Structure formats: structure tokens, C-alpha cells
Amino acid sequence: MADTSSIPSTGPLGEDDENAPIGPAIKVAAVAALGGFLFGYDSAVINGAVSAIGKVFDVESGALGFAVASALLGAAVGAVLAGRIADRFGRLRVMQVAAVLFLISALGSGFAPDLLVLIVFRIIGGLGVGIASVIAPAYIAEIAPARLRGRLGSLQQLAIVTGIFLSLLVDYIFATVAGSSSSPFWFGLDAWRWMFLAMIVPAVLYGGLSLFIPESPRYLIANRQIPEARRVLDLMLGSKGTEERVTRIQHSLKSDTKPSWSDLRAPKGGLLPIVWIGILLSVFQQFVGINVIFYYSNILWEAVGFSEADSFKITVITAVVNIVTTLIAIATVDRVGRKPLLVIGSIGMTVSLGVMALIFGVAKTTTDAAGAVNPVLTGAEGPIALVAANVFVIAFGMSWGPVVWVLLGESFPNRIRAAALSLAAGAQWVANWLITVSFPTMKDISLSLSYGFYAVMALLSLIFVVRWVKETKGKELEDMDDLMV
Length: 485
Known about the structure:
Growth Hormone, Chain: A, 2 strands
């Protein structure tokens, strides 16, 4: 199968008809973005369940951290494989596979009889997350009109943070109605089990709606389904210039070769500099500890003295803040630029994480029955920690959250984009796993140490951006070859 990632045009499919209706493109992009919603929901739903899982299965911090992070192992594999599978079987088929994986994960996790079974089904869900993290933005870019590509592509990140918010809201509602996350709810099942089972609804919706949207024109032309490709191009971009678009795509496919990991190698050995930049962007995005907030915030706030109910409320508020700041990034990234937003975000994260490390470092401590030392926030310490945590989310949400995905999608030259994006996405999930699985143990040692480490990573991310990341605002995809060096 030829690599369909390098069409020489000013947009994904050339100049589109500005008089063409935009409704079909918006609907199709919204369906594709449901993958991002499930990505966010599956990643964060464990937050409300983690405390109950620890009690029900009587597991220690290390095993609990692995259970929380297990989905990320599947996500890393899914991200690496998604591009190649989509080239062979089609974008829609891969979406449907992801939907089935989400459905299986929801059922298996909800009815898991022990921790091992839960981990297995979380890994299965992680495969769906990894696939969705790659295929949704790729599909939207390939099918969107050029004049709408930026806004429609941003639906992916908006869907992710919305999925995170709704998963945390569902967690809060179920736990509140049941009395706690470990209390019986509908049909005698504990509330935490229903948190996972609720994912059945968006998974079925995603898979069902994917049956009614068109395949990517690039994939259709690569597989010689020219009449169907013309129909999709007419529907998405209008009838103006359809034959020219088909001809240009066919020409690009004739000159392309199959995707190969060897394309990522530098002439003198090792990886190309731009590939390393993509990998480090992905790693720093996770090493600042953002997912500690969304995976562990409930038990974090409980550990420092807040009730379970208040901890759920704080987590939901934080998720709303994340959505609002993502909207700010969507509105400003093409006007302000990628690099300035990353610089501002790194500064904000360094300061806020440093404040949290300081607060937890000077707080009084207590020792629980298990021997774990927990800080107790008194007086102004609690409000300051809450404000710092939300400033951190604001700084991340307006910068490193959405902007890294933008840069990964546009920085790589055409000939290496598919392979480089898969490698960077895989590195991102591995980094996410390392941070997630290590936090429970680090927390038991010292919360101040944990947030101090994340603050150092945020400071290093600032140095990295200033020194090595180049601005891509206003550049065409075909002008990225100068970033190779």
C-alpha cells in the first residue's frame, strides 16, 4: 500500500469550493472526533474508581499504580500500529475496531472479578485509546475542506477534554448517589463498576455512526475506487475542481513509497533531529505530570484532608477549567503562534508546580494505618494548593495540551509524517505510563518530591522549546523540509 500522507497541495486535498456547504464536513468531523471523546473518557474514568479498586481488591500502592497505568501500555501499542493498519484496511474500519475495543473494555472492566482481569481489559481499552489518538485527527485532516481544516482538526482536542470532563462528572454523580465509589448502586453493582460500564453508550454511538460517514478520499484513490472518491470529494469540498484533485492525488500516490521506519534515520546514524524534537515534545507533555491531576486527583485531595465528595467536586471543576483553556488555545494558536504559547505554558507550569511542591513540603504530616505519611493542609495552605493546581491546568491547557498535537501533525515533512507521528505518539503513551505508574509510590514517599520533579521537568521543557522548537505558524505542510536539520 502506498503512503498516502504526502499530497503536494496547499491543503489536504487542494483548493476547495468556498460555495460548498460546510454541514457535511462538520458532521463527519464530529463523528470522527467521538474517538477523541472516548480517548478522554477511558483515560480519566479510572480517577473516580481508583480508591474503591484499592479497597475492594486490597492492593498496595505499586499494584494500584500499575492498574491505573495499564491502559497506557495498550495505548502505546495502538498508536504505533494505527497508521499502518489504516493504510491497509481503511480509516473507517480502524474507527470501528477502536469502538469495539472500547465496548469490550467497558464490559470487562465493569464486571472484573479481580485486579488482574481489570488490568487486562484496561489494556484492551488502551489499544482503542491509542488508535483513536492517531486515526481521528488523521481522518479529519484528510477529509476536511482547507478553509475549515484548523477548526475541524481542533475538535479532536476539544473532544478529548470533554470526554475527561464527562467521565469525571459521571464518577462524581455515581459516587454521590450511591454514597461512595465503593457503595452498591444499580442492580447491586458498586458505583465504581458503573463508571466503566457507562462507556458502553459512547462506544456504541461511535461505532454505529462510523457506518454512515464516508471513507477518506485518499484511501479510496489508493485502492482504485475512483468513482466513490469523486462522490466523497463532491460532498465534502464541492464539485469545483474534483477531477483536478483526483489527478493530483493519483500522481502523488504513483511517486510515493510504502511507509518505512528507515525513513526516520539520519544520514550519519540515529534519528533525524526533527523526529527527536517530536519525541521530546511528547515526553515533556507527560513528564510535567498533567495526568496525575486527571488520574489521581481524587485520592490526592483526600490524602491532604478533603472529603471524597469535595474531592470529586474539585476534580470536576478542574476538568471544566481544562475545557475552557483548550478553547482559548484553539482561538489563539493560529494568531499568536505555537512557540510563544509553549513558552508561556512552560513558565506557568514551572511556577505553579513549584508552589505546590513548596506547600506540600512545609505542610504538617500524619501517618495512616498502613504507615504512609500524608501531608495535612491547614489554614491558607489548602486554598493555595487548589489555586496552584488549577493554574497548572490553565497553563497546560492553553499550551502543551493542544499545541503539541498541532505540532506533531504539521512539523514532520510529508515523506516521514506517518512513521514519525506514530513513533512520537507511542513515546507519549510510554511517558504517560511511566508517570502514572510511578505516582502512587512517589506520593507515599513525598508529595513535595513528586511535584518538585514535575516542576523541574516544566523548567526543562521551557529550555527545550526556546532552544530547539521552531515556529510553524503560517507554513504550508510542504514547507517543513527546512525543519529536518
